[in-house]
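Bump. Still looking for 11861_t:CDS:1 structure tokens.
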Amino acid sequence: ILKRNFHKIFNEVNRHLPVNFDLFIDIKVNNVVISLFLEDLSFNENFLNAISRYNPTLEYANTSHSFSTRPQSEVGINKRDDIKIPIYGGDGISNNGSKCS
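Sorry for the wait, here they are.
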């Protein structure tokens, strides 16, 4: 059920294009989790309404600074137009010799 719900929520991501969020399966709560910022709540409202039927666990932070103590310039995040490959819990990422995050 978790994998199915993850895929269905992932499909809604491509439909609604929410911003500033993380989508993952948390084995501690045994559920799909979405972490997002309160400041983006109104922008992501249609997405959240669309996924509510899958009962994900929602985690909110007051500001985008709540999740990271590093300045945005050091994080090195690039904007992506769409997600090409979903990554599941337990999967690994290799970046050809560069430091891993």
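The helical segments are 2-16, 45-51, 72-75.

Edit: fixed formatting.
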